[in-house]
């Protein structure tokens, strides 16, 4: 035995020495440096979100049929009001494309002046819903639906931004944008200025993918900022004529609702619009929260508080006559990918929007639109995440189907419709998997009895199998049918009704049917035994846990001969029996 083993095995126990009171390395001194580094990361992340949010705010406003400045005002509110609230940590809010079509229809019908009243009413209603704690119900969402939602948002975002990346105008719907790509490519190759803009967008995309591989502290600078700097430099060259951002006067765009607009609250159409905005904005924000929570390992979203925060933002937006606010996946994803850890970044992005739009609009006018479109294409690709589809296929084919359906429906219709259909597909998949019904038939083994044994969950989704088994037992032509459902853990109304109707029908035709339902102590027969013969006592009817014997008997009252003893275990704890009695 070695000396070390001897000390541990046979030596005298000694109390270990207390650690030295003076640590060899300081534990608290690095904290300030870490804090400064975190603040620097939050600031750079906020600038990245600002660059993603700026074109989105303008694009959503234009698509909604309102001045571009109203989109920026909503973006500022999404950062300074919603961003400072405590509902979520990394989720970023602002005007969203998911509401653009609805806003456009509302503006067309009621005018821009009534938009503020509708948004104001929606915000107040959202606050009420959050206070009564209805926000958490949006947590019940499948992972496949979340991933499908992200892909369904990312794919249209990519194709929609290919057009401004070439200084062109997108045709409209996602399907139209996808179909128009060949024509866009041909038109871009034929136009020198469009080619220049497209090359700036391509350089932005390449930098976004490769910048993190740069050595040293250089890679800490956001790739989007580097791309903007390159774009500004190229746009300033002689002979280059690419489109740049144009922002008007924010203060002149503010339109506070007056008594005339508030009187519209008595209009049924206005009230309907308020309810519609509330439902869609709340669903998009909280579904997005579920998606964003899966992107990071930080604090989870507090759904009720987030719903109140969204309501507060929409209340302020309504008072200023701006666009409705929801959480936006593209901005939130950029925030997470930029390394943000706190609410500072999303709040600061609203401050940058306000400062540049009010104080430095001439600086914004230097930024090429194609560069910002390239930033959005990169964000869309990260959301689309094509590698997740084969991964889901290998893990679960059913969930892959739900994920694919969600993506395709969002691309073909809109975000809310796609999510709802995805949720419905997930519910159907769960119901199918829960309806695990085991049905065993024996219509040939016994000369007189056709037997059907069921176990598991018998729901309406398995009704065709149940009917097939029952019809097979009836078609056997045997005088007696035994239906053993003791192994069924759940029997819904549809299957129960089918079994009971079948039993009544067969008994009406003269067939003896023995029915043992779930939880029954004794089988139901018609009758279970005939009346006592010659004064002899009738044996008791055995329960489902009884031990059964196979008997050779010709008439009740004779001495039976035991032929075989046994039982076979079925799923759910049931036993398969062949009961041989009189008749």
Write the topology of this structure.
Elements: H1 3-9, H2 30-63, H3 68-82, E1 93-94, H4 100-110, H5 112-131, H6 143-162, H7 174-179, H8 181-189, H9 192-210, H10 223-235, H11 250-253, H12 259-262, H13 268-293, H14 303-319, E2 326-327, H15 329-337, H16 344-359, H17 361-364, H18 369-384, H19 388-395, H20 397-412, H21 415-434, E3 437-442, E4 449-458, H22 463-475, E5 480-491, H23 493-508, E6 512-516, E7 549-552, E8 561-565, E9 568-569, E10 575-576
Parallel strand pairs: 4-5, 5-6
Antiparallel strand pairs: 1-2, 3-4, 7-8, 9-10
Helix pairs in contact: 2-3, 2-15, 2-16, 2-18, 3-14, 3-16, 4-5, 5-13, 5-14, 6-13, 6-18, 6-20, 6-21, 9-10, 9-18, 10-18, 13-14, 15-18, 19-20, 20-21, 22-23
Strand order of the largest sheet: 3-4-5-6
Which percent band covers the strand fraction? 5-15%
Taking all Cα atoms into account, the compactness measure Rg is 35 Å
The parts where pLDDT drops under 50 for at least 5 residues are 1-37, 526-544, 546-583
State the end-to-end distance: 82 Å
| Major sheet details | 4 strands, mixed
């Amino acid at each position: 035995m070695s000396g070390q083993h001897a000390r541990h095995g046979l030596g005298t126990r000694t109390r270990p020495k207390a650690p030295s009171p003076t640590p060899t390395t300081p534990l608290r001194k690095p904290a300030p440096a870490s804090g400064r580094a975190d603040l620097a990361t939050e600031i750079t992340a906020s600038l990245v979100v600002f660059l993603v949010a700026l074109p989105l705010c303008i694009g959503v406003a234009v698509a909604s049929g309102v001045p571009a400045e109203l989109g920026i005002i909503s973006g500022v509110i999404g950062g300074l009001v919603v961003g400072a609230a405590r509902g979520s940590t990394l989720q970023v809010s602002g005007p969203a494309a998911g509401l653009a079509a609805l806003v456009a229809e509302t503006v067309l019908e009621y005018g821009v002046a009534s938009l503020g009243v509708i948004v104001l009413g929606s915000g107040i209603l959202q606050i009420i819903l959050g206070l009564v704690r209805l926000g958490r119900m949006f947590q019940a969402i499948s992972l496949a639906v979340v991933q499908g939602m992200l892909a369904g948002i990312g794919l249209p975002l990519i194709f929609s931004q290919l057009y401004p990346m070439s200084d062109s105008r997108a045709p409209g719907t996602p399907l139209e944008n996808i179909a128009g790509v060949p024509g866009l490519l041909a038109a871009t190759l034929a136009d020198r200025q469009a080619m220049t803009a497209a090359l700036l967008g391509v350089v932005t995309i390449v930098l976004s993918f490769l910048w993190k591989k740069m050595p040293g502290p250089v890679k800490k600078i956001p790739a989007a900022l580097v791309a903007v700097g390159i774009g500004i430099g190229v746009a300033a060259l002689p002979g280059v004529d690419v489109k740049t951002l144009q922002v008007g006067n924010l203060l002149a765009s503010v339109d506070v609702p007056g008594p005339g607009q508030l009187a519209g609250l008595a209009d049924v159409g206005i009230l309907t619009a308020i309810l519609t905005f509330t439902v869609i904005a709340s669903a998009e924000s909280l579904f997005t929260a579920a998606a964003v929570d899966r992107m990071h390992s930080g604090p989870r979203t507090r759904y009720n508080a987030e719903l109140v925060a969204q309501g507060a933002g929409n209340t302020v937006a309504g008072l200023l006559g701006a666009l409705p606010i929801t959480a936006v996946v593209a901005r939130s994803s950029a925030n997470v990918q930029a390394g943000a850890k706190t609410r500072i970044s999303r709040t600061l992005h609203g401050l940058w929007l306000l400062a540049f739009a009010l104080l430095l609009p001439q600086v914004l006018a230097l930024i090429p639109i194609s560069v910002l479109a390239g930033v959005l294409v990169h964000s869309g690709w990260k959301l689309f995440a094509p590698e997740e589809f084969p991964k889901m296929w290998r893990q679960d084919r059913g969930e892959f189907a739900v994920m694919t359906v969600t993506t395709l429906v969002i691309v073909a219709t809109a975000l809310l419709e796609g999510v709802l259909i995805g949720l419905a597909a997930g519910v159907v998949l769960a119901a199918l998997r829960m309806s695990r019904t085991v049905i065993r038939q024996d219509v040939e083994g016994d000369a007189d009895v056709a037997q059907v044994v069921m176990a598991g969950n018998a729901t309406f989704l398995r009704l065709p199998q149940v009917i097939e088994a029952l019809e097979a037992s009836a078609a056997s032509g045997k005088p007696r049918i035994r239906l053993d459902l003791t192994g069924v853990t759940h029997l819904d109304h549809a299957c129960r009704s089918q079994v009971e109707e079948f039993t009544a029908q067969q008994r009406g035709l003269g067939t003896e049917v023995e029915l043992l339902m779930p939880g029954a102590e004794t089988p139901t027969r018609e009758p279970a035994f005939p009346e006592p013969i010659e004064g002899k006592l009738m044996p008791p009817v055995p329960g489902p846990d009884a031990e059964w014997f196979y008997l050779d008997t010709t008439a009740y009252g004779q001495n039976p001969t035991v032929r075989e003893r046994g039982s076979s275990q079925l799923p759910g704890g049931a036993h398969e029996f062949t009961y041989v009695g009189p008749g």
